[in-house]
Design brief:
20% helix, Molybdenum Cofactor Biosythetic Enzyme, Chain A, Molybdopterin biosynthesis moeA protein, domain 3, 403 residues, six-stranded mixed sheet, Molybdopterin biosynthesis moea protein, domain 2
């Protein structure tokens, strides 16, 4: 099955429903998906405010002001930022204001301090001032009743700041989907337990676990399952009962077991990609089960290729692929005959400040996780990528070249 055929087979059976909503405190809402439209409960700013240090006044009082014939206004007080005044300006009056201060009733403009001349309680104005100068009008930033944030938006630092500015201590968000993760393999040991000779710790599951978090879902780690049909069957039933999706990192073929738990069963059994040829996908009811390689770097790569977008859609969030940068191939990269190949690469800058993608020269499963910053795709119909050829690198991390 080709890569596109496998993607289509998964898509046919995948029927995500929009998750329920829940309320969370604002400081825990980062990277959550907004569950409702947010409507401004008040104007921002809530009052007319000064944008300069100077004097609030009524523009009509300066209509005849000129250099030769200044207008004299009586200064009747001071308003600092954060204060409000009960004073209502009368004709011929002004009031001293700080930057950000709320303007008093009767004032419709502000003159900067350096544009007038004050002596005691008298302010001389030497030119006409127009209404609305040097001030923010109430509602000029956000008007009461306006939709500020839309349902489905992912809440980042900017959106959290907007909600705080509007006075929201809590926010309605979509429920995070649950993704169960477990491993199968006689050679896989669990963290926190003694590691017998010949076994390796469960790096693949932990790597995928974290990638699930990056997609905005909540992973559930179910540990390591023995190579036993009954145990694997029971774990698949448990996983689909508690989660919306299941990811299995397995060093043995469990497709026959996954196919018999519930219909429709296996929809993908092997994909013409390298690494990850043994990748399989089953559906237990409407819940997808991804069966990935136990090799950590291969498991992470296949998860990003096949499962990433589904996890995002389960959470009602926009589908966002991995960040991509353009680079130049550091050496020739070869494809696997008849398969779509994905080569792990390191990134560095050369002496001409070009970003270079060097094929990863390692056979170690763990060192590949350490050194691989991304991967390059070689389509089935291409035999190789030439050295110095421009390539698109999809990043595992946010970096774009080592210093």
């Amino acid at each position: 099955m080709t890569f596109e055929e496998a993607k289509r087979a998964v898509e046919i059976s995948f029927k995500p429903q929009l998750p329920d909503t829940e309320v969370t405190v604002l400081l825990e809402a980062y990277n959550r998906v907004l569950g409702i439209d947010v409507v401004a409960p008040q104007d921002m700013p809530g009052s007319n405010t000064a944008t300069v240090q100077g004097y609030a006044l009524n523009a009509k009082d300066t209509a005849t002001a000129s250099e030769d014939n200044p207008v004299a206004l009586k200064v009747c007080g001071t308003i600092a930022v954060g204060e409000t005044s009960q004073v209502s300006l009368l004709g011929g009056e002004a009031i001293e204001v700080s930057v950000g201060a709320v303007l008093p009733q009767g004032a419709d403009t502000v003159i900067a301090a350096q544009d007038g001349e004050r002596e005691d309680d008298t302010l001389q104005v030497y030119g006409e001032v127009f209404s609305g100068e040097n001030m923010h009008q109430a509602g000029s930033d956000i008007q009461k009743g306006a939709v500020v944030l839309r349902r489905g938006q992912v809440l980042g630092s900017a959106e959290i700041g907007v909600l705080a500015a509007l006075g929201f201590m809590e926010v309605t968000v979509l429920r995070m989907p649950m993704v169960a993760v477990f491993s199968v393999g006689a050679e896989i040991g669990e963290l926190g337990k003694p590691l017998p000779a010949g076994k390796v710790f469960d790096a693949a599951a932990y790597s995928v676990y974290t990638a699930i978090m990056e997609c905005g879902a909540k992973p559930v780690c179910l540990g390591v399952v023995a190579e036993d049909k009954l145990a694997i069957t029971q774990m698949l039933k448990t996983a689909t009962a508690v989660a919306d999706m299941v990811v299995v990192c397995s060093s043995v073929d469990i497709t026959e077991i996954a196919d018999t738990v519930d219909k429709p069963g296996i929809v993908v059994n092997g994909v013409a990609i390298k690494p990850g040829r043994q990748t399989a996908v089953s559906f237990i009811g409407e819940k997808p089960v991804f069966i990935l390689p136990s090799n950590p770097s291969a498991a992470l790569l296949v998860f990003q290729l096949f499962a990433r977008s589904l996890v995002q859609r389960l959470g009602g969030r926009p589908v966002a692929g991995l960040k991509t940068v353009m680079a130049y191939a550091g050496s020739k990269m070869f494809s696997a005959k008849g398969s779509r190949s994905y080569g792990l690469v390191e990134l560095k800058f050369d002496e001409n400040c070009r970003l270079i993608a060097d094929p990863l020269q390692t056979t170690g499963a763990v060192s590949a996780l350490v050194n691989a910053e991304g991967f390059v795709e070689i389509p089935e119909n291409e035999q190789h990528i030439e050295a110095d050829q421009e390539v698109a690198v999809r990043l595992f991390r946010g970096s774009a070249g080592k210093s």
